Amino acid sequence: MSDPINQAFEAMRAAALKRNGSVPSLNLQGGARRRAASAPSGLGDALRDAGDAGARERVRVPGLAGEELDARQRSGSARRRRGIPTGPDGRRIPRRRDVDTLGSIVNREIRQRGWAREIAGGWVTGHWQDLVGEKIAAHTRVEMLKGSTLFISCDSTAWATNLRMMQREILRTIAAKVGPDGITELKIFGPKAPSWRHGALHVAGRGPRDTYG
């Protein structure tokens, strides 16, 4: 009858080979050597032959600590040759991700201090010609930003009408440049009409009329 320990090792070897893995060599087991020496000659020879065959095979079992350590050491050596910093275990040193960039710090300060709309208004004023084109910019001017409303004056009623027809497109362009919550409305005015008022007393008329555009 076969030795139960030998049967156990054979079962382990068969299972490992099915998984394309390996088991420790039988010749490294001190107990197996002692049993082989004390066993009958036929059984002892079989155990020694199995141990020698296991030593020659050197099969790898996925998940063994020794195999993982060897792989880490080989990977660490390759990284050191490439100049990649590694730790004592050969793994790549992770990058620090808790350091804020200058842009994120500035954006956070802008949000906390409520400067987003003021900065948006300043950007629109400085880039008005880029937003509406050179021809329209020559006849219009950004007056001020109040809340989320941008006030624009035109040098004639015709240009004010044209700009009102374009305001949705202008707002979309502004939102794409400075964000959707900076400027949400345009107030467009025509030219200031001359005043015929003289003295402190006067009668209210029909209001300003654009007859010079």
UniProtKB/TrEMBL annotation:
<protein>
    <recommendedName>
        <fullName>DUF721 domain-containing protein</fullName>
    </recommendedName>
</protein>
<feature type="compositionally biased region" description="Basic and acidic residues">
    <location>
        <begin position="46"/>
        <end position="60"/>
    </location>
</feature>
<feature type="region of interest" description="Disordered">
    <location>
        <begin position="22"/>
        <end position="95"/>
    </location>
</feature>
<dbReference type="InterPro" id="IPR007922">
    <property type="entry name" value="DciA-like"/>
</dbReference>
<dbReference type="Pfam" id="PF05258">
    <property type="entry name" value="DciA"/>
</dbReference>
